[in-house]
Structure formats: C-alpha cells, structure tokens
Amino acid sequence: MENYWEKAVSFEEYVQTGKQRLENPANQQEIDYKHYYELGLQRIDRTVKKYVADEEQLKELASKNFTGKILIISEVWCGDASSTVPALVKFFEGKNEVRIFLRDSDKSLINRFLTNGTESIPKVIILNSDFSVKNSWGPRPEYGRQLLGKFKADPEHYTRDLFYNDLQLYYAKNRGKDAIQEILELL
Q1: What Gene3D superfamilies does its record include (predicted)?
Q2: Nearest to residue 124, comparing CAs of 113, 90, 66?
Q3: What is the largest CA-CA distance in the chain?
Q4: Which residue blocks in 33-159 are alpha helix, DSSP H?
C-alpha cells in the first residue's frame, strides 16, 4: 500500500490532471469523456466552494484519535467521485493526510477493492500509520446505493436519467455529510 500511496497525488494535482485531460485529451476515452470531465470539474468546484464541515463530525473524528491516512481511488470524470471526493478532502484537511490514486492510470489497486466485481469509484481506503488497510468504503453512501437499487429493480419506470438526476440532487444537498459519517464509523 505504501507504493500506491507514493504514486498517489494531492487533491490539487488531481483537479489539475482533470483539467489537462479535458483541454488536451491523450486518448479516445478522454475524448469520449469530455462532457463528464466538464461536469466533474464543475461539481468539484461547487463542492469546494460550498462545503462546510459539520462540527459534530469533526468532534467524532477527534474522538477517534485516528493517526492514519486516507487514500482515495478516483477519477475526475466520475459523478459519484466529483461530489464526494472534494468534501472528504476538505473534511480531513489539517487532520489526516489524503491522497488520490488515479484509477485509470493503474488498475491493480482498484482490482483489490472491487465493488460487486466492478471497478466502481470513488473507493476510500483507510490506512493505518504503518500503511496496513484498516477499512475501505465506497463508491457511494447508503442513500445512493438505495437509489441504484431502485433503478436496477425497475429501469423501465425509474429510468437511468431519473436515477442520475436524483443522485446528483442528493449529492448537491447532502454535500458529503453521509459519506463522511459512514467513513467515520469505519475509523
């Protein structure tokens, strides 16, 4: 895990990489994902500007005496990640170091943390100070999983567009609070 940590980037580098891929796509996927990069960067910017840490959650973090690190597997183009990652980074800022490992640059890490056999992101890996894995979380909070379940159970009536719309409305209103709470419970 220490090797993955060393290859991971800061949040600022993560956002900059997303901007570079949007402006100068290096491959067909980056060209095809142009719209997703644009949306992701907009959502990241909105979350960074509007995020305010919950005082109770900050107290809970302090009470955990967690001295480890937070490694997030992510990509800027991901809708779940663009709404969750900035809130996590802001929440842990000044308390626990957070780095982001770009999933598409090396699939070996995500393949160790699959979600129901998929490479779903973001995936938060909670590391002890010795780089052993304490726990992992992701790719979305429980309410997001419920929405996905509703879509999968009846895609004819609860369409993909409705699912994505409801999910993004939830993320915009919740501003990472549920994700942070679920991660706090894993510390």
Answers
A1: Glutaredoxin (3.40.30.10)
A2: 113
A3: 48
A4: 34-50, 55-64, 79-92, 107-110, 142-153
pLDDT in tens, 128-183: 999 999 999 999 999 999 999 999 999 999 999 999 999 999 999 999 999 999 99
* DSSP one-letter code for 93: T
φ, ψ of residue 115 in degrees (nearest 5): -110, 110
Q: Which amino acid is located at 112 in the chain?
A: R
Q: 21-36: per-residue pLDDT in tens? A: 999 999 999 999 999 9
- Closest to 180 in 3D by CA, of 41, 51, 44: 51
pLDDT tens-digit readout, 69-107: 999 999 999 999 999 999 999 999 999 999 999 999 999
Contacts of residue 149, Cβ cutoff 8 Å, sequence gap at least 6: none
Distance of CA 69 to the CA centre of its chain: 15
Domains of the chain: 2-139+179-184 (3.40.30.10)
Q: What SS3 class is residue 5?
A: helix
Residue whose tokens read 């159970």: 153
Q: What is the pTM of this model?
A: 0.95
**DSSP-derived pairing of the beta strands 98-102 and 123-127:** unpaired
